[in-house]
């Protein structure tokens, strides 16, 4: 039996092969990862791993022995160059590898700065792979000067690590505020103040004009004309779905690899899961960049390969660790018209997003109770009056019984 062939080496790929075996799939299972490492988790790369608080082995989603024990053929360092849909094979160099079902878990790729403004200079880094972080880690020495371009979660997490390690940190965000694309002004203000309190020179509404240097980074010029002395640069300006393999095979693309509610692409023998895949939800094709989505989609696809016919119902949740703050996010805030701020006491704070009287999402800062209650309310389709949430005397857990 040719079996299931999975392309990818991250959370979705590892979750999918594990689900197949745990649910009793007895056909051949092969996982092809482009990176030389075992499948690993990415979120700690810009946090605990970069700080030196997590060993490499703890990044791995499963030990190497797991794959052999489960009769999963794991091949790392294998780049898939193309898909022959008619022949049901993939091309990896001169090798052809056959499949019955192919699953694309190719993830995403970071947006890079143009070479014309210095993006290709030595000393410019993105934070996406283990190799990226291993390459930049030796530069995280006290007193070094780092410029971080982009005020999204990756940029802010890198800034927190750098500041904790004693670097001189400048962060620039071209938009009016950090986290503008994903969070409310209230959440942006919280993290702006947090970073400034740790000595980060955070500049909003200021873009990057160019990075200076002949072959290596020596400085940077900002869009407002400011010149900075810089030792290295970290770029965190978003990611793109890694859909090139699917595009080359003629599969439908719509904000990533387009799949139906069961995770199947426009080819009935090819599936996709994780960051690379867009699925129907909220009246359109949507894509979620999160660990939770990668796991849930992968397990759905595994179940449907085995004939269960399940439809995907996304339950979005995210998190970010910065300094001593754990941010937990539940739901999607798209379309909100009101933000309710709740003081949880003892440094806990949460921001609740409403559209009218309907609860859409929340951001919880060091407030796991608010996160747990809000997540359960959102997933059950329940809500609570904004004024009830705002009242510090409200027993949040009681809202779950209403």
Main sheet: strands, sense, barrel: 5 strands, parallel
Assign the CATH topology of the largest domain.
FAD/NAD(P)-binding domain
Q: State the end-to-end CA separation.
A: 52 Å
Tell me the strand order in the biggest sheet.
Answer: 3-2-1-7-19
By CATH reckoning, the class of the largest domain would read: Alpha Beta
Q: Please report the total strand number as a whole number.
A: 26
| Principal-axis shape | globular
Give a structural overview.
The structure is a single chain. This protein has three domains: 4-109 and 239-305, FAD/NAD(P)-binding domain (3-Layer(bba) Sandwich), CATH 3.50.50.60; 112-235, FAD/NAD(P)-binding domain; 324-399, Enolase-like, domain 1 (2-Layer Sandwich). The termini are far apart. It has twelve helices and 26 strands. The mean pLDDT is 96. Helices cover 25% and strands 30% of the residues. The protein is α/β, with parallel strands linked by helices. Strand 11, helix 7 (185-197) and strand 12 form a beta-alpha-beta unit. Helix 1 (11-22) packs parallel to helix 9. The chain is globular and about 55 Å long. The protein has a five-stranded parallel sheet with strand order 3-2-1-7-19.
